[in-house]
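User: Fold this; tokens only.

Assistant: Input:
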Amino acid sequence: MAFNPLTGGGHREPAVASGDWTTDHWTRIAFQKSQRLERKRQELREQVSARNTPAERIRIWERRHGLTLPRDSNHKLLAVVAAATDLALQEVHEEQRRRSSGLNTDSVDASIAVNE
């Protein structure tokens, strides 16, 4: 059963009672394809969501594209990342600086929340 974050629950593959294994097979394939497309749409929404920090949005972009944020502050890809994540180029540069300094603010925030 796949978890659906939008509904808070899961859904099962469609029940197929045709008895024809080829029809059942193609129905399952179509269902799995629709699930993949929905996950892709959800990731895209999260990539631009103001609820996520710039670091989270950039990590989503990196995961979706199998790339890492360039270290060069003049790299042309930074403008692409900024546009795709709905961030200002300055916010992408700030994330670059944060990463190069070795400071991981996400883990610092998490440890603060645990200690409260």
